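Figure caption, in words: inputs first, then the predicted bound structure.
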Amino acid sequence: MFLDLQDRRVLVVGGGAVARRKIEALRAAGARVVVGAPELEPAIAQRVDDGDIEHLAASFDPAWLDDVWLVVAATDDAAVNRAVAAAAESRRLWANVVDDAELSSVQVPSRVERGRLQVAISSGGGAPMLARHLRERLETQLDESLGELAELLTVQRERIRRRWPDIGARRTFFERLLAGPVPQRLRRGDSAGARRAFEQALAETAPVPTGSVALVGAGPGDPGLLTLRGLRVLNEADVILHDRLVSREVLALARRDAELIEVGKKVGGNHDATQSRIHALLVEHARAGKRVVRLKGGDPFVFGRGGEELEVLHAHGIDFEVVPGITAAVACAAYAGVPLTHRDHAQSVRFVTALGRDGGDPIDWPALAQERQTLAFYMGVSGLERVRDRLIAHGRSADTPFALVENGTRARQRVVVGTLAQLPQTAAAHAVQAPALLILGEVAASASVLHWFGPAPLRLEDAPDAAAIPWAA
Ligand code: SAH
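Bound structure (S-adenosyl-L-homocysteine present):
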């Protein structure tokens, strides 16, 4: 039951902090609050002074219950609370006694609110902490835009009824509407677009499938680094096209009956053929009316070819949205204890890919070799020798520290550290594998001090057969 308290008198007995919280919630629900207590804490007294609530300045009197709809006992005196409950009971008035399920005839639920849409959770007063825990989980899953959706449906309720008088047909209409572009547009903050899509849906006579694509950044691997919005979109997906780089833990968060399709690129495989296949799959599933999630490692717009995929969708008139992710450089730096910028050592940071497009070398090495900046190299494991040689040739100090982060943020994370001069040897000695991210610059030195995740950083000397490597000594 949800009570309409708008302009109805509700009595709160008690004038302390607990009463204040109840008063605030009741005022938010539109109730006319009467507070009964000999003394009030300042915040409540202020509300009385403002004329916002009424004050009965005395000890509890059962006559206070005569003209109220509901009563809340919020004193710290058990005897008073009991007296309030008993007086309410004999008048057949609903009463809530704070923190006392036995005495209460009404429980106040934990709530998730999105505008006029409310989800209430109750354990019958028995396990309020569990209800609160569930509430937090729901908070993360229900998008803020649901409030606006509820408002739109409220305003349009009569029109929808008239358009589909038959309840069965109306239900089908709602199912299509809620799976379609209206909620998605609202989620993107496009109220006008949602309104147009609604008008279109209302005008339709036969169901027209309206698929869409969400380009989502899955982050570097640790599922805790997925965004809330990413999680919500995964919860609604019909089809998920994911890269190989996306961790199993993240995929496990997707809707159970979503179809998972791995479209990963193998190292050395034909990337352009794979990319064309991805484009074809995106268009095919969206055209079939599916809610498609294109899930990429890290952020979709950082070395992820996300832009190309959106261009294809745009050209085909398919609806899309983009959910950013935590990119590998940001995540690996955090999990290796390396601040990417530093007031003294690095005024800028660059995200660089060590791979050229067609084997050429489009990289501006002289610019990268400049001091006082941090370089984050993606896809670098195989090109380390070139990175070292070019940077040193263009003047970067051979002593510049590096931190090479393998499987960053994942359970198997390893960090290998050293100086630029010995970068390729150190990586080889520890057999560093993809995915790995190279951070180069003064800031990388702090990996040895500030590491907090996974095993301590490894140096060249720590390699199993370091003694056998001539340059290790
Ligand atoms: N869009 C992705 C990058 C794709 S390119 C992002 O924003 O992170 C792939 C490269 O990213 C890998 O070769 C590696 O250099 C880096 N990378 C991705 N995930 C990583 C991880 N968990 N640990 C280390 N490097 C990672």
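The chain has 18 helices and 17 strands.
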